[in-house]
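Annotated sample (chain length 380).
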Amino acid sequence: MHAHNRGTVRTLSGIAARLRMHRPDISVLLTWSASARTGDLAWPDGVLGQPLPPDTVAEAQAFAAHWRPAVGVWTGERLPPALLCKLRETGTRLACIATASDAWQVPAPIWMPDCTAATLALFDRIYAQDDAAHRRLRRHGLADVDLRQAGALTDTAPPLSYRRELHEEMAQILAGRPSWLAARVRASEAGDVLRAHQRATRLTHRLLLFLVPATREDGKAVAALVRQSDLRVGSWDDGDMPDENTQVLLTEDASELGLWYRLAPVSFLGGSLRPGSGGEDPLEAAAHGTALLYGPNVGRHLASYSRLAEAGAARIVRDSDTLATAVSHLVAPDRAAAMAHAGWDVVSQGAALTDALLTAICGWIDTPAETHAAPDGDAA
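Output written by the structure step:
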């Protein structure tokens, strides 16, 4: 898979993780353009990463001979004719994800004729993200290429697992009681979360907070802060179930976060109030149908937060006071439901293309292509 920018590196990495979840026998190489900064990204198991080599015949031949991929997925408007031609010759099935706004770029000397159409014809299948992209591709006369319209390429996060019977039991215990979740909270921001909850309970007296630290180490520090507060706390890991007097239900780590996302109509995502960690993936939370609150320090997932905020699915808070105000406002079921629905729309936008891509990849790998020469008008 090739990513043309940093955001697409993260998206394709997530798709690769989903692919490996269903087919652990498949290994993935992720390449990226020189402009994509990837130094702080972590790769899923079974996924390798490297910058794309220069598009020369020698480099393309060496790349194809070394990796011999069964399937290649290309994103971005800059096409490497030498590499795509060599991959096609050696039997790689090629798919391209096309946007509507970017013009194709095929590097070639100025005196050479335009080989954009010939390069696009090397793909077995091209996914157009919208009508405009589909029309632009048809104008290139790609008669033998399978053109499909499948929506935008966006991050998709599969829902976390949970115990269904425990969810049903907790839902009965809560019985419509207002609640919210602080997920993957760092020790440095736990004090802000607790102050926000204390303030919110003045307006919503039965309000319950599910407090989930990011790690067990954070959990120890958070537990110490909770003990110092005036809040009435139950320990989930000690077997406590919330009663009418419980104001905070504390867990040691995020191992059962799938349960809490499903119970809480409003979720604050930790690692965002204080600088240092760059925030948590908001699409994971949005996939569970919860309204999202987050702090200003979300640089690692800024594009996802921006997309959710523009859709009305997420709201930024700056400190404990603004967090308390947002929680008090959103615990009203109709307000939280509207935000959660907007978040689900954002998450589902990328599902169609992701599902189609995973199906095609698995099908192509299970039915290897024969090696063949490039079509007439060799792009390389």
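Annotation: The longest strand covers residues 179-185.
Annotation: Residues 372-380 have pLDDT under 50 and may be disordered.
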